[in-house]
Design brief:
- This protein has about 400 residues and is an alpha/beta fold.
- The protein has a domain at about 20-80 and about 195-255 and about 355-405: FAD/NAD(P)-binding domain.
- The protein is built from 8 helices and 17 strands.
- The strands form 2 sheets. Strands 3, 4, 5, 6, 11, 12, 13, 14 and 15 form a 9-stranded mixed beta sheet that branches. Strands 1, 2, 7, 8, 9, 10, 16 and 17 form an 8-stranded mixed beta sheet that branches.
- Helix 1 links the parallel strand 1 and strand 2.
- The two termini are about 30 Å apart.
């Protein structure tokens, strides 16, 4: 066995207070305390949305898959998401093009495709997770005025990404929002992230995958063309390939100046809040720092978030929780007149991002059969779909044409 490399992923408290999705039905996945076998085709570390999409993609290719998690499945950062499933990347396309050239348009087009593919997958598998197709309304703010929004619109048009530019008058007429401009685009969605994750895990289990929990991986080593994983309990598991889908509890070896962990806050209102009709078909976010983002759920709740802070520990402060929720509610009222009153749920969580807004999907440095998925950014579910496609292709000895766009950096 090669000399072990200390790869224990960082431990974080993945949310403060109870996210709304944690109180919904059908978000559990059965697990066993000890795997039934020692050796597997693929071991996936992490039973959140990234691990679930990875397990579905690999079991579809008849791989023997073991999923391990140090927590109860579906109880990590996935249920802290507001599940605004967008193709729009946090870094505007016309800004990203300055860094990446023509590759920026490729990343955006791949993100569009991933949202479409995810909706198709959920429909094909019959997963009940309140998946709804949505349009996305991107508003001007203190980071982008109407001229910059026009540049963004033109960049998207040149990249063959369908969208419309709304000037101030049209935005007010159609949405009753007083901002200088907006971009309206399709190919977005929303869902219950807990039900989506549990549904995907259930599909993988029906194909023979196992989930073992709680199992904590403490070390990784390669021997020949396979990997050996040490567990906290002193056991050893082996696999031809290992995929770390540990989210913001990333491997220390993957740490880079290109990404950071921040804090974010979110709320869910009571059901049947008075709201404009268009909101039930839309996701809304703004070009501000910090930005407000919001949508409705099928029962008429408002799901909103924002007030991000560049502090990886700020979300842990209980004193900030309700103050941040009040600020989000005030912004929502000022923007479009929605009065949510006292929220039914408020929560906080760590939030990962990269300097270019893109995920990291690559081999773990120094290893040939270990891979890491770091689905950072505001559209982590979308990036998790891309990761499942790239890694599944790689493990089938195929090359995804876009894999270099998301390489470790």
């Amino acid at each position: 066995m090669a000399t072990p490399n200390a790869l224990t992923s960082r431990k974080r408290r993945l949310h403060l207070a109870k996210p709304f999705w944690a109180a919904t039905k059908h978000i559990s996945a059965p697990s066993i305390p000890t795997p039934s076998a020692r050796s597997w085709d693929v071991i996936i570390v992490g039973a959140g949305i990234s691990g679930a999409l990875m397990a579905e993609a690999l079991t579809r290719k008849n791989r023997r898959v073991l999923i391990v998690d140090r927590r109860v499945p579906v109880r990590g950062s996935s249920i802290a998401s507001t599940a605004m499933i967008q193709h729009e990347i946090d870094v505007p396309l016309h800004h990203l093009a300055r860094r990446m050239g023509a590759d920026a348009a490729r990343t955006w087009r791949r993100s569009v495709r991933a949202v479409q593919d995810l909706q198709d997958l959920v429909a094909r598998l019959g997963i009940a997770c309140d998946m709804q197709a949505k349009q996305a309304l991107y508003l001007t703010g203190d980071e982008m005025g109407h001229r910059a929004m026009r540049s963004e619109f033109e960049a998207r048009q040149n990249a063959d990404i369908a969208c419309d530019y709304l000037d101030q008058a049209e935005l007010m007429q159609r949405f009753g929002i007083d901002r200088s401009a907006a971009i309206l685009s399709g190919t977005s969605a929303s869902a219950n992230p807990g039900q989506l994750t549990a549904g995907l895990l259930s599909v993988a289990q029906a194909r023979g995958a196992e989930i073992a929990s709680p199992v904590e991986i403490t070390d990784l080593a390669e021997t020949g063309d396979s990997a050996a994983l040490a567990t906290r309990e002193g056991g050893v598991l082996t696999a031809e390939q290992v995929v770390f889908c540990t989210g913001y509890e990333f491997l220390p070896v993957m740490e880079s100046r290109a990404h950071r962990i921040t804090s974010t806050w979110a709320l869910a209102s009571r059901p049947r809040i008075a709201r404009p009709d268009w909101l039930d078909r839309s996701l809304v976010w703004e070009a501000s720092e910090p930005y407000l983002y919001f949508r409705s759920a099928r029962d008429g709740r408002i799901i909103a978030g924002g007030e991000d802070m560049d502090d990886p520990e700020a979300y842990r402060d209980p004193a900030r929780l309700h103050a941040k929720a009040r600020r989000i509610a005030l912004k929502l009222r000022n923007l479009c007149g929605i009065e949510i009153g006292s929220p039914a749920y408020v929560w906080a969580a760590p939030f990962g991002n990269t300097s270019d807004g893109l995920p990291i999907i690559d081999r773990v440095p120094g290893f040939s059969c270990a891979h890491a998925v770091m689905g950072f950014g505001g559209n982590g579910i979308t990036f998790s779909m891309i990761a499942a496609q790239i890694i599944a292709a790689r493990l089938s000895d195929k090359r995804d044409p876009d894999e270099e766009l998301f390489a470790f950096r």
